[in-house]
């Protein structure tokens, strides 16, 4: 039987069955809708096959496919997990009859679709048909790929026969086969540096080109070329722009069109990217008082400056002891009196300076070096600075431009995925759902499934690490939200960083090491600990052995070796639980929300046309105190959050306290089954909220 004939018969029967339900008026008054799963040949319904529910809810049937049959699909677009036998129909708003399509094994037609480039996008990669019929397949491309056509018998380059060059094509399938999608394009690109008045060191060239290769995930290239490669007499390079610009002409780096920090990882969407070096005119030497200094013996917490690798440059040079100029922009030269500037002394700046550029030669900024500059708003510095303190700068600093001198040392780690998230946040088109949390979302969201459950939305998994301030990422995200966007704050309940603390942590530099531009997206006055955490990131922390000194690690080009997909999910297969995670350690009544900070960010999201909502990160039930595993404890936690926050709490904390077998290697990290369940729960919570926002 052809699939079209079979589907027509099933749908006709469905209409008759729906009409036969009209007499049960009493039941209909109690419930809004009725859903029926019809038991047919090839399946066995092991639970109820008639479910009455309320509009907008999700219904789940328990069903088994009988031996000798193959499941093809169903007439309602429901999600069927063959392993668990659960058929789940989300967002039911009208009566429905569900028919499962199963056929004998010997009648199934299997179709496989292969692609010659991993960056090519296919609407499906395999299909099972109940019999001969039409199959429509679509191919999509990225900015650096073109679709070359469909073939059979192999790829075109291997002698395959061309079937069509249309990206969307309908094939008549009369037997099992493999179709081939052929893509073509350029595998490399150029970054063209326009030196904007400068030239290449030891040469006269005014442009410089660096070639790169596209990453499978997306095209990214480290922009380290200005570290001594580009020079301009009397000027210091402070970043890049997409049009010619000098820093001296702008009040803030954020005002410069297309500004980006040096040494970050930059995305290339086409065959080439044009960048212009942004220069700042150095302040004349006469505006500084200085003296010779040797900082090789300066130390802190067991770290001595003399142990720095040679790549960090000279330990001997001069320190600035006073700035006597009157300009509102102070650009410290790399050299004064023919010697490198390596230190800024305490009390050196006490003026009306509003912006300062600290050169890449400086490694030590003493306490109170700039603290008397009450009008200082913006600081440009480099990752060559090793020792610096919160007391080094005044609280008036709102913007920092952090440029990299070394290749990233955490490239390839999980933190390397922060680039994926940050890039996707800024570039994804249309409405989006951004989930913000620690590693419970990094390891516990199935974004591909999420997009299927939430049609019309793109998903960004901004799961990071629970040590980080979620407030910081929510603040950044608010800048890139638009009309209809949904920002989901789903914290690891009870931990300070996830619950909205404004304190920096060293891991925030670790994770964002390759996208330092992100620190320009927030007002630094809203946060504490930026400079002290930078110091700990550089040299380690005697109180925290988990912080590995960055200065003692070897840098490398961008390479994301962790198994991360395009959404920012951990894509490693995690099927079973890896042991016990210890005894109970969380009491829901101990939680504290930093609601003032969070509510302020919610207002920013709202002003851009989006909405911020609260859900909860998953937690292993075995790690929750028994006193918190009650309905009344869940209700108190939900009510506390709802009372504290100006944005809606759309979830029940109890729904995200899950059984131990749903987790993998910690009380926050879900395995595949757990991530699927958590994703379905979150999608259902959002759907309910969207159906009636006024109820929250």
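^ structure tokens above, recovered residues below v
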């Amino acid at each position: 039987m052809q699939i079209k004939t079979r589907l027509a018969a099933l749908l006709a029967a469905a209409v008759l069955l729906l009409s036969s339900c009209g007499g049960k008026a009493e039941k209909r008054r109690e419930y809004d809708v009725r859903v029926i799963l019809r038991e047919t040949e090839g399946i066995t319904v092991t639970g109820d096959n008639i479910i009455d529910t309320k509009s907008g809810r999700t219904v789940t049937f328990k069903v088994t496919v009988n031996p000798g049959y193959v499941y093809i699909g169903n007439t309602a677009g429901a999600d069927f997990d063959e392993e668990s036998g659960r058929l789940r129909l989300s967002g039911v708003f009208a009566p429905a009859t569900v028919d499962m399509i199963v056929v004998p094994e010997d009648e199934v037609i299997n179709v496989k679709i292969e692609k010659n480039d991993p960056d090519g996008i296919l609407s499906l990669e395999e299909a099972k048909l109940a019999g001969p019929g039409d199959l429509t397949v679509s191919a999509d491309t990225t900015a650096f790929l073109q679709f070359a056509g469909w073939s059979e018998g192999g790829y075109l380059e291997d002698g395959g026969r061309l079937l069509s060059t249309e990206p969307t094509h309908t094939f008549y399938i009369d037997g099992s086969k493999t179709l081939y999608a052929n893509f073509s394009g350029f595998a490399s690109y150029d970054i063209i540096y326009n030196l904007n008045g400068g030239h290449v060191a030891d040469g006269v060239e005014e442009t410089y080109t660096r070639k790169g290769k596209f990453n499978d995930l997306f095209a990214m290239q480290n922009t380290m070329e200005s570290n001594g490669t580009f020079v301009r007499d009397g000027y210091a390079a402070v970043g890049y722009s997409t049009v010619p610009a000098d820093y001296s002409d702008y009040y803030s780096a954020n005002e410069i069109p297309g500004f980006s920090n040096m040494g970050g990882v930059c995305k290339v969407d086409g065959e080439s990217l044009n960048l212009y070096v942004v220069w700042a005119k150095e302040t004349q030497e006469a505006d500084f008082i200085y003296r010779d200094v040797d900082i090789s013996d300066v130390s802190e917490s067991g770290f001595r400056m003399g142990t720095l690798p040679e790549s960090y440059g000279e330990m001997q040079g001069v320190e600035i002891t006073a700035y006597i100029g009157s300009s509102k922009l102070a650009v410290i030269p790399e050299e004064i009196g023919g010697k490198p500037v390596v230190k800024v002394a305490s009390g050196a700046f006490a003026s009306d300076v509003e912006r300062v550029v600290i050169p890449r030669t400086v490694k030590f900024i003493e306490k109170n070096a700039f603290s008397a500059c009450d009008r200082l708003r913006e600081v440009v510095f480099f990752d060559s600075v090793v020792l610096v303190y919160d007391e080094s700068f005044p609280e008036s600093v709102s913007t920092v431009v952090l440029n990299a001198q070394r290749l990233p040392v955490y490239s390839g780690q999980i933190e390397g995925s922060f680039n994926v998230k940050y890039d996707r946040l800024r570039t994804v088109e249309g409405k989006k759902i951004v989930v913000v949390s620690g590693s419970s979302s990094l390891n516990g969201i199935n974004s591909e499934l999420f997009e299927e459950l939430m049609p019309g939305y793109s998903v960004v998994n901004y799961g990071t690490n629970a040590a980080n301030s979620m407030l910081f990422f929510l603040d950044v995200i608010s800048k890139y939200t638009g009309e209809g966007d949904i920002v989901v704050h789903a914290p690891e309940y009870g931990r300070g960083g996830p619950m909205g603390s404004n304190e920096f942590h060293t891991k925030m530099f670790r994770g964002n090491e390759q996208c330092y531009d992100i620190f320009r997206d927030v007002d630094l006055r809203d946060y504490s600990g930026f400079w002290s955490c930078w110091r700990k990131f550089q040299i380690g922390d005697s109180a925290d052995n988990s912080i590995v000194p960055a200065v003692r690690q070897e840098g490398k080009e961008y390479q994301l070796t962790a198994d991360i997909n395009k959404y920012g999910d951990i894509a490693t297969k995690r099927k079973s639980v890896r042991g016990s995670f210890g005894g109970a350690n969380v009491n829901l009544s101990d939680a504290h929300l930093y609601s003032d900070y969070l509510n302020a960010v919610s207002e920013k999201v709202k002003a851009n046309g989006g909405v911020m909502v609260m859900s909860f990160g998953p937690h292993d039930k075995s790690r929750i105190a028994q006193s918190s595993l009650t309905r009344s404890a869940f209700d108190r936690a939900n009510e506390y959050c709802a009372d504290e926050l100006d944005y809606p709490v759309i979830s029940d904390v109890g729904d995200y306290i899950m059984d131990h077998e749903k987790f993998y290697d910690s009380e926050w990290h879900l395995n595949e089954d757990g991530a699927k369940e958590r994703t379905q729960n979150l999608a259902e919570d959002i759907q309910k909220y969207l159906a009636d926002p006024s109820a929250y």
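Residues 1-29 have pLDDT under 50 and may be disordered.
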